[in-house]
Write a structure and sequence with these properties.
The chain has 2 domains: 1-15 and 65-104 and 151-230, Rossmann fold, CATH 3.40.50.1220; 18-62 and 108-144, SIR2/SIRT2 'Small Domain', CATH 3.30.1600.10. It is 31% helix and 21% strand. The chain has 9 helices and 11 strands. Strand 6 (105-112) and strand 7 form a beta hairpin. Helix 5 (67-74) packs parallel to helix 9 (215-228).
Amino acid sequence: MNIVVFTGAGVSRESGLKTFRDSEDGLWEGHDVEAVASIRGWWKDPQRVLDFYNVRRREVIKAEPNAAHRAIAELEKNHDVIVITQNVDDLHERAGSTYVIHLHGEVLKAKAADGAIGGSIEWREDLNLGHMHPLTKNQLRPDIVWFGEGLPKLDEAMDIALAEDVDILIVVGTTLNVYPAAYVATETKAKRVFVVDPAPPELPVRNLTVVKEAATTGVRQVVDELLSLA
């Protein structure tokens, strides 16, 4: 079967990683979201933004994939699986998933701040002003999609998620409040859809199965069912 898995913060949260979606007061780890997660924030105070993501990068490196990440990777034993994630960590990859599309970027990568060619590069150390892209010699910034920027991977994700040959869509740990990323789920043509979340979002699609569980337990249930069908 062709399976698409769409994941959000609820998956990484169970590995100890928080996002601004955990807060209702506009603060992310004590920081104003607009100041540290927008292109305007970068223009105003780039070192503050770099400092913020240096902490996030260290947290991701210390974190470990959880049971949900591992169960999703396990699906590849018997099925063709593509993961589309809103998360910027590499926990899906470390769990064993081989095809992962990061809609909002990757915190363990960096790119030229002025958009110059050269592409993104792996970056696991602290990133500061004066760190330059090795090819373009331009200032580096986190390879993160901030507020005020487009989603460079959206077209690829939509082409995959909305294809007629998708048999299963699994939606895990996302409120589906972030657009246009949420179109991956709301516009799906998948023959069957699973939603795993303790407080599942409304999803007006046919053949919907809702699992009101945390990611680590709910994904296991779904994966066991799908592996039994192989």
